[in-house]
Amino acid sequence: MIRVVIADDERLIRSGLRLILTAEPDIDVVAEAADGVEAVEVVRREKPDVVLMDLRMPRIDGTEATRRLMTVLEPPPAVLVVTTFHADLEVQSALAAGATGYLLKDAPEARILAAVRGAAQGATVLDPAVSRSLIASAVPPEASAPPADLDTLTARELEVLRLVAQGRSNRAIASALFLGEATVKTHVARVLTKLGVETRGEAIVAAYECGLVKPRPPG
Description:
Mean pLDDT: 83
CATH superfamily of the largest domain: Response regulator
Distance between the termini: 31 Å
Largest sheet: 6 strands, parallel
Structural class: alpha/beta
Radius of gyration: 17 Å
Strand order of the largest sheet: 2-1-3-4-5-6
Oligomer: single chain
CATH class of the largest domain: Alpha Beta
C-alpha cells in the first residue's frame, strides 16, 4: 500500500486529489495539510511514501517544506510537486530542494496516478509541459556537445544519468543495463558527486542544461 500525504492550501484541490487517489486499491491517503509548516509536521508524524506538495502555500512554501523534509526524515519521502505554476525557476528550485517530480494540477487522472506509483518506486516524473519549458530555458538552441562538467563522467555513468533523466528508478535502470541495483545506486551516487549536486532532480536539470537529454515532442 502506498501511503500518501496531500499538502495544498485549497480544500477543494485536496478533496479532488483524495477522491482520485482513494479510488485506487493500492493507494491510501493518510493525512492532509493546508500549509507548508503543517505539511512538515504531518509528514514527520505519518512517515508517508509520497507527498503531493503544492508550491504556493501560507507560512512556508512547498519548496522550503520539501527542503526541510529532506533533512528531518531518513529516508525522506518522495515529494511530488503538484501545482498550477511551472515557471522555470520554480521547477529548478523544487527539484534542487529534493522533489521527486513535478506535475501540473490539470494533469489527467491517469498521469497523476502513474506519477504517485512511479515516485513510490523511486522514479522521477516531470509533466511534459514542465519538461519542455525547463529544457527550452536551459538548453541552448545550438547545443551539440556536453559541456566540460560532464567530462569527468565515465561512459557508464553517462548512461545512468540519461536513464535517471528519463525518470527511471534504480531498479528500472538496473534492468535496462543488466546491472545489480546496488551497482546502479553506486553509479548514481558517483554521478551526483561529480556533478556537485545532492539530488536526482538537480542531476536531471544538469542533464538538460548540458544537452545530454533532449525534450520529447509535444503529444
